[in-house]
Amino acid sequence: MIKVAFASNDRVNVNLHFGAADTLVVYDVSPGYAELLGVGEFVKVDMKGENRLKALSTDEETANVVDLQLSAEELERLAAKPPEDKVIAKLEFLDGCSAIYAASIGTSSIKRLIAAGIQPIIVGTGQTIEDLLNEVSLALHCGGLSWVERARAKAERTAQAPAAPRESGGGLRLITSIDELE
């Protein structure tokens, strides 16, 4: 029903900064079901410009952002050669997605994602994709996440025909109620 993407290099955990992500994983999510639609692989880029000064902590519990020190030479080089736009290809790949989950997303990318109609969501490093898919599935069934409500309403407005019943083959069965957690 809605497409959701994840910045992940292991296809299990959300563990990448959106702008520097070399892999994005996209699922189609409906109540009780998620199907892998595709994996986008991008040229690995080093963080540059203002975001070059920050990196994700290796402490998975806190996922804090820490400052890195740059030499005067590195600062001059960055000022002389502005960084390439690494987000364009990712925005094109995410066309039709309702949201992107990432361990970090820069301010510029957040603005561009919102302008493209994609909800940026920052989660702690190591959050599992399956847990987040379950959260979205539950919200599609029961409500509770405003961005999911908006995405569902948009999907229903643009749908021209009812969706065909899902096969139980290649996708993930997800929870649709709290009772299923027991």
Automatic annotation (TrEMBL):
Family annotation (InterPro entries): Di-Nase_FeMo-co_biosynth, DiNase_FeMo-co_biosyn_sf, NifX-like, NifX/NifY_domain
A Pfam family annotated for this UniProt entry: Nitro_FeMo-Co
Keywords tagged on the record: Nitrogen fixation
Family annotation (SUPFAM superfamilies): Nitrogenase accessory factor-like
Domain of life, source organism: Bacteria
Keyword Nucleotide-binding applies: no
Residues annotated as domain Dinitrogenase iron-molybdenum cofactor biosynthesis: 58-136
Keyword match Transmembrane helix: no
Gene3D superfamilies attached to this UniProt entry: Dinitrogenase iron-molybdenum cofactor biosynthesis domain
Residue ranges of the TM segments: none
UniProt signal peptide: none
Family membership noted in the UniProt record: Belongs to the NifX/NifY family.
Name under which the protein is recorded: Vanadium nitrogenase biosynthetic protein vnfX
Native organism: Azotobacter chroococcum NCIMB 8003
Gene transcribed to yield this protein: vnfX
